[in-house]
Design brief:
Strand 1, helix 1 and strand 2 form a beta-alpha-beta unit. The chain contains nine helices and 13 strands. The protein is α/β, with parallel strands linked by helices. The longest helix has 14 residues. Helix 4 runs parallel beside helix 5.
Length: 267
């Protein structure tokens, strides 16, 4: 039985862990919250309280990584609060422990924000040009992990994350003067996030980078207007007086390399 450690069992990591368990993997999970330990353990996940900082790692990190062949890193940079962090240093502090545990393969959950605001179609061959601080730190972290020859890292760059309990229309409903009405959406459902990660593991596809966005790119105005109507919410109003600007993320490499079929292609 292959053992997998998931660093960060939150909105995506927790259902991912459950799905991997159902597929026969042994799963070790981490959380920063002591209260969540029992919730993880009740599902059959061996749980550890682990917290990374720029200077140290709190928790039994050696035990968390011990005997695992694969590590999934699913912890986003915390850069929107007053106490913004250096995410790159956090991951650099983790690397010696990955090496010590002889982890062979790493999956790093990144974001399409590494591409910046290209006004064109973006593929994995497009040179990243991160503009936000989060995008810049994610991009440098990708490089740090993939340049390490002691393990193979696959990077998965997800677009906007949605799920049955999470959708941006709940934030946008009723708002006015929303920018970029004609820009395309680049979203992906939680079920496909899990499916893609599992496809990488099951097909042993490491040392790669994948864009991961549903092949469905209506305009923001079209999509969010329709979603508001479907859910009985106030329709958002868009600013039509400025030119729209935004990229379209191409995820065709998922089809050609992993033969992946989206479960929620139309969101």
């Amino acid at each position: 039985m292959k053992q997998i450690s998931i660093l960060g069992c939150g909105w995506l990591g927790m259902p991912l862990a459950k799905s991997l368990l159902e597929s026969g993997f042994s799963v070790i999970g981490s959380t920063t919250s002591l209260e969540k330990i029992s919730a993880l353990e009740s599902t059959g996940i061996q749980a550890f309280q682990i917290e990374l900082s720029e200077t140290e790692i709190k928790g039994k990190i050696d035990s968390f990584l011990e005997n695992s062949e694969i590590l999934i890193v699913d912890i986003p940079p915390k850069l929107r609060s007053v106490s913004s962090e250096n995410f790159i240093k956090k991951i650099q502090n983790l690397i010696p422990f990955i090496e010590k545990a002889k982890i062979e393969k790493v999956i790093f959950i990144s974001s399409t924000s590494v591409y910046g605001d290209y006004n064109s179609v973006v593929t994995e061959a497009t040179k990243p040009n991160a503009e936000t601080e989060s995008g810049k730190q994610l991009l440098e972290t990708e490089t740090v992990l993939q340049s390490n020859t002691n393990f193979k890292t696959t990077v998965i760059r997800f677009g906007g994350l949605i799920g049955d309990d999470r959708h941006p229309i709940h934030f946008l409903a009723g708002r006015k003067n929303i920018e970029n009405p004609e820009a395309a959406i680049n979203l992906i459902h939680q079920k496909d996030c899990i499916g893609i990660i599992k496809a990488v593991i099951e097909q042993d596809c490491f040392g790669e980078s994948f864009n991961a966005v549903a092949p469905f790119h209506p305009t923001r105005k079209e999509y969010y207007t329709q979603k508001a109507i479907e859910l009985g919410l106030l329709v958002p109003e868009f600013n039509e007086n400025r030119n729209s600007f935004g990229k379209i993320i191409d995820s065709n490499l998922l089809f050609s390399e992993l033969n992946y079929t989206f479960q929620k292609p139309n969101l």
